[in-house]
UniProtKB/TrEMBL annotation:
Protein name per its UniProtKB record: XRE family transcriptional regulator
Alphabetic keyword roster: DNA-binding
Stretches assigned to the HTH cro/C1-type domain: 127-182
UniProt cross-references to InterPro entries, sorted A to Z: Cro/C1-type_HTH, Lambda_DNA-bd_dom_sf, TransReg_Diox_bact_type
GO annotation, cellular component aspect: cytosol
Amino acid sequence: MAHTYRTPRTGPKACGSPGEHTADPPCRERVHPRVAVPEWLLSGGNAVVVGRPRAPSDGPECLQNRPRRPGRTVRVSACRTAHAEPTSRERPVRSRGRIGTVREALDARRQHVMRGLGDHLSIGERIAFYRNRRGYTQEVLAGLVGHSTDWLAKVERGRRKPPRIDKLGELARVLRVPLGDLIGQPALLEDEKQQDDVPAVRDALMSPRRLSRLLFGPEADAQLPVPGPVVPVVEQRWNDYQTGHLGKVVAALPGLLQTAQELEDRGTRSQEERRDCWAVSARAHHLAATTLAKIGESDISWLAAERAMRAADESGDPLVLASAARSGTHALLANGRYDDAMELGETTAAWLASRIEEDDPAALSLLGMIHLRAAIAAARHQDRATATNLLGRAETLANRLGSDENYWQTSFGPTNVLLHKLSAELDLENVSYVVEHGDIDVDHMPPERGVSHRIDFARALTLAGKGDDAFNELRTAEGTSPQLVRNNPRVRETLRDLIKQAPVTGGARSSELFAMAQRCKAVQ
């Protein structure tokens, strides 16, 4: 039997995230004076309505949770719960054998919303949700981004393909939301091994001890780590990233970042170890920035990238700084700041070119990767001339290198240049080129690179109407690294399009395609 609590009448409020409520105007539901604490608030599952069972497909939708007649216990509204403030006199509630409080229930609800509740929504549905939340009509929003009302209406209803990435960036700026909120943030989910510890990474980056070394510096006799033993630990986590084991990286990052701060403290005391201490810190923060960008935490990705660049500056090593600059381009791309990413890449390349030896393979690899990241930024900005020029520079360096190598975890070489060229052409909407040239061997590349290419290639095949080939690419990618595939927003969009293109059986719940769509949260 569900336990109940009383909630204050706080008046109507609008819903706050996609997946809760997509209707316009916002939910006007009034709070029933006596409501049941739903199971899904504490367990993440579906709520249970007292007196009537719910099918799993009902879900926590505001419009499905209207109050019943007085005197009957009803389920809590998802809309109301997301905003209700618990009273100071909280009553204990029980769910599946555990006792908690209403505040715990609300915290669980907020975390559930933040970590993928609206993953099943398409890009068009997300645009419609945030347009309604801002109070814009289709005519107004379309005019603000220079398109017709008919264009926007078809995008929102899924009757035409999603806008280009640069247009999505423009829509995000007008709607005043992060770009990731429109495309669907990747969400790292490692429930079985409890490795999804992004809050701990955030705490490590935002610790008040990071604000002032003078105020929070260690005591004179504090035992600080030395850089030597930390280096192989950081490099092992880099290997985990390249092999697609992102859960291991996230689980290790809080400790690595704490150690990096202690190395910085040691570097300020010892001139002999200064260079090595700051270099290791730069590598650890670079790993954090790249991983956080990959899993959709774009805001703290930028914070980690800034820390990596600062540590690299302190190290005085040109190659460390060039490597850290890559983390800056990753963070800027994740935040939709393509002009800034191009500027960082071009500035870094110009600075590095005069400080490296021409025959140094590590330097060639780093310089080549800087050109490739800047080329992707140019392509997403729809600047074909600049993208082509930067790809040409990278190709020249790859030819000088002569083979596919992995200095500084760059995976740089002729194959990686080709993969970036295909990715750029896809961003430039040259789908036919990607379909024609995308079937290349990537088995010898690190899994992170190979899976990223297969996801791009599958997207192009889907847009070209080659659904079977696209699905085979996604299946192969998932077999290589499930973590990189199952929570990728481009994969979700591709699977939704494949379901639309498939025969009637393709969308059936028993089909292999639908099963994969469920695993990737493309459908409910």
